[in-house]
Design a protein that fits this description.
Layout lengths: L1 H42 L3 E9 L4 E9 L11 E10 L8 E10 L2 E7 L2 E2 H14 L8 H5 L4 E10 L1 E7 L5 E7 L2 E6 L8 H22 L1 H5 L6 H13 L5
Parallel strand pairs: 4-7, 5-8
Antiparallel strand pairs: 1-2, 2-3, 3-4, 3-5, 5-6, 7-10, 8-9
Length: 249
């Protein structure tokens, strides 16, 4: 009898190990597909992800080649391009209602600011996210998934470092400039609560990126306007004033 029980126990253990291995082999593809499917529903622009490497044992992940496209009507190729990002997750939290992300570090992303007083690409994407949030989140076409409550997310530490802004201002005749963006450091997102939805988390991060970008573009507006005689100093001041008003968005 004991041999039978031992045999059953070993068989169960083997099945668990095999399941974890198989799930781990396909998990990268599952997450990649999820990012490229759910992400565009939140931001309403194309999102592509080159590669993601996940480790279930350590709760770590490396994201490579994440590109957030631009809204229709904008000419620059992308709004945000992330070469590499590292993520640390509490692996046990994946089984709970709230996924706890210990840290996210986004290294040297490229951010495009295209537009002017009539609107800009980042502001448009943020408006899209607001619209989705007000409607209750992205709509799922999967009836089974839609019947289950979506998992909430907590991010303890979110760092964006070494970013560059590629500026293209339509109010300055398409004048272009590349600016460094100071580090953006967010903490305790969704902590102490039931967590944030994917839409709310996206909005918090995008709001921080947009505000920091507009601040840098505004402070450099005078330099961008140099040499544009048809605009003049009054035009530059008007542009700076208008960009400054976007901070309230």
């Amino acid at each position: 009898m004991k041999k039978i029980l031992w045999g059953i126990g070993i068989l169960v253990l083997v099945l668990i190990v095999v399941t974890v291995i198989i799930y781990g082999l396909f998990l990268d593809r599952i997450v990649k597909a999820g990012v490229e499917t759910i992400g565009p529903k939140i931001v309403q622009v194309p999102i592509t992800l080159d590669k993601i490497n996940l480790s279930l044992l350590t709760g770590s992940a490396t994201v490579k080649g994440l590109v957030v496209g631009n809204p229709e009507g904008y000419k620059t190729p992308f709004a945000i391009s992330v070469g590499t990002a590292s993520v640390g997750v509490n692996p046990f939290s994946v089984l709970s209602d709230k996924i706890v992300v210990r840290s996210i570090v986004v290294q040297s992303p490229e951010i495009t600011f295209e537009g002017g007083l009539g609107g800009n690409n980042l502001g448009k994407i943020l408006d899209n996210v607001d619209s989705v949030a007000q409607s209750g989140g992205p709509v799922s076409t999967n009836k089974t998934a839609a019947s289950k409550p979506a998992k909430k997310i907590e991010v303890d530490d979110f760092l964006i470092t070494g970013a560059r802004i590629h500026v293209s201002l339509t109010d300055l005749g398409g004048k272009e400039m590349t600016l460094p963006l100071p580090d953006i450091h967010l903490t305790n997102l969704g902590k102490g609560t039931g967590g944030l939805t994917a839409t709310d988390l996206t909005r918090a991060v995008l709001q921080a990126i947009t505000s920091a970008t507009i601040k840098e573009v505004t402070s450099s507006a005078s330099d961008l306007g140099k040499g544009l005689e048809n605009l003049g100093g009054a035009g530059v001041n008007k542009l700076k004033s208008g960009l400054g008003g976007l901070f309230g968005k």
